[in-house]
Amino acid sequence: LDRMTAGLHGGELIIVGARPAMGKTTFGMNLVENMAFKSNPGIKPVLVFSIEMNAKEIVTRLIASMAHIEMDKLKKYRLDETDLKNMLTVATKVNNYKYPPIFICDGQVSAQEIRSITKRLSREYNGLGGVMVDYLQRINFPNDGRARHEQIGEASWILKSLAKELQIPVIALAQVGRDIEKGRKDKRPMNADLRESGSIEQDADVIMFVHREEAYQRDNPELKGKAEIIIGKQRNGPTGIVDMFFQGNYARFTETSQANIEQTV
Description:
By secondary structure, the protein is of the alpha/beta class. It is 35% helix and 22% strand. The two termini are 15 Å apart. Residues 258-265 have low confidence and may be disordered.
């Protein structure tokens, strides 16, 4: 995935779209984890706006991914000695950073509030490593009589402007419309499947989709865990598909041992 995208770049709006239960929050948090702990470890914090999940759920996913502990065990507090050692290792790593590596803002926010909070934290910490919003259509919009697609369009424009102004990558998760499931043989999402997609597609520098065929063919054991990250748009690079493996109980997507990367220019 990094080879195809050359990483996430400052000034870019990255849209990650999927149907529900495909793992878009998990994939988004994997990107956040990478930004916070690999791209700029301990230097610039990453800000997460979690509109759908509360902060505790997000932290549980982070611990599961970073410490490689099953989420079921974390939720039920059934940790063995190895799990505790792994948690301690992660906690020590995080505690040694100069700044908190990740800030989580949960609950309802408007696009203007996202802009205001992000700029304030950027000033306070002398820059941010990036921002993620989960998810775009859940942003709080005023009851001002405008059509839904106009409000979504304004939100995507504000996020793109924020990315350019602060020169940081801004990741916005987005819901894909259900038309994909109505009689279409190939369930892979396309750019046009983004709900209220016009402005989103125009503003985005990169559009990725999370797709798991397993969700549609649950009786097929060969599809278990298989996932695809579809790059539907990349302003400065190729589009194509990256084969991944979905480890749901560890809140992780990992590349397959021999990732099949199909590139189309």
